[in-house]
Amino acid sequence: MTYAIPRSDPYATMATRTYLLLFSLLCSLSMGCLGNSAALVTFLALSALLVLISIRTRLIIQVDHSELMVGRAHIELKYIGEVTELDTAAMKTLRSRDANPMAFLAFRFWSSTGVKVEVNDERDETPYWLITSNKANQLAKALKEN
Description:
alpha+beta
């Protein structure tokens, strides 16, 4: 069974809209100071930059029959221990005060829930993976099934 988080994330869309709002504000300020041509060039350049950033920083999570893949990182399922679904409060605590500096962190600021995946490999010093997902329950279920 292959499981993938859908790419149409409403929080990512909200972040994109926020950036576009800020870029529009910047363009309107530059139009007032520098004129219409400068505002148009600034808007087009910043819009292209925003699209590039959103494509390069997306977090794709996949679980298949043999491994968990989060972005470019992957781990075989035989090395996965306990899988814990985290609510907003637990995620906030684990991201900050209770964070282990050796843990693998794959999170986005606009996602408030996630999954903690314990690593059971004596060769790997990483104690756990902390992965944000708006569908943490589906991700945890997919990991526990495999």
